[in-house]
Amino acid sequence: MAEITCGKAVFRFSVGPWNLHPGADPFGPPVRHEFDFDAKIAIFKKIGFDAIQFHDDDVCPAELSPAATSRAVKEMKKLLKDNGLEAEFVAPRLWEHPNTIDGGWTSNNAKERAYALERSKRAIDIANEIGTRRIVLWPAREGTYIRESKDPFESYKRYLDYLNALLTYDRGVVLLGEMKPNEPTDAAYLPTPGHFLAMGARTKDPKRVGVLIESAHSLLLGVDPSDDMAFSMACGKLWGVHLNDQDGLKYDQDKSFGAVNIRRAFNQVWVLARGGFGRKGEYVGLDVKAMRTQRQDASMRHLENSLRFFKDLCEAVKRVNLKTVQGFRDARDYEALEAYIVRLLMGK
Description:
The protein is an alpha/beta fold and about 350 residues long. The chain has a single domain (about 5-315), classed as Divalent-metal-dependent TIM barrel enzymes (TIM Barrel), CATH 3.20.20.150. The chain has helices spanning about 35-45, 55-60, 65-80, 110-130, 150-170, 195-200, 215-220, 225-235, 260-275, 300-320, 320-330, 335-345, and strands spanning about 5, 10, 15, 50-55, 85-90, 135, 145, 175, 185-190, 210-215, 240-245, 285.
């Protein structure tokens, strides 16, 4: 898919290899075969993506030596180049390792905190070699199941120390916090973008600390994703998005973007368009999962549908008459404004 110009924005799209998956969930095993990585890349390119999101161990196993890691990164970079793709970011996948059962950088165990830091530094090395400055931090287990299990003051200090260590390790890297209020922990430290930006303001280099907003994470918090996006853009800190959808305050469902609430999806696209998202190289990322019942040969439809819905919503954004909208606002006629938006989304 060629880049899309919409309002002030220029949209290019990214996806992670985990978004083509075999369908395992906490209550059942895989129901489809795993595509090998080369096949995933070919599928992503055919659908129209411009960049790939990576965890560090998507690029190569975490246990490789520095020399073997460098060789593997070079091979991955060549694969991307051969397919006309870029790396959007690298994220250290800390939440699946035995050393991070109690969190990475907020663990009570000093050796476990050291592991989290060293693995994160390695992720930065991978990012530099593969060609991106962006490091995404999803603090999956940086919280508690019971609040008494960690000293909150010490935990926030460890959080700040960790961010400063990464900023000091590489003075070109930028950190994107992908905040989520719960799951897998019962309650996360810094559950919102605002919390993370406040902590970022206390770091050694606040200019290099921003956020990535995921639609479902905002919805799990009970707020509208477009508001989180607008707030972050107003602060000059929205450096990435993960679009998907969510049916209520459940687990993180990662439904196709716009599949649950098309008006809510419209407002996200409208905010991104008005805010000029993408003009500085940011990508519109998807983080969506196929339904478990989907057949192998059609298990990429959720990606195709999400891009199609996004493109259709761009067309809806272009049809918005801003003078009409402002007239309703000035008259405080919000019923008429609501009817205008709903009918516009119905193609009327």
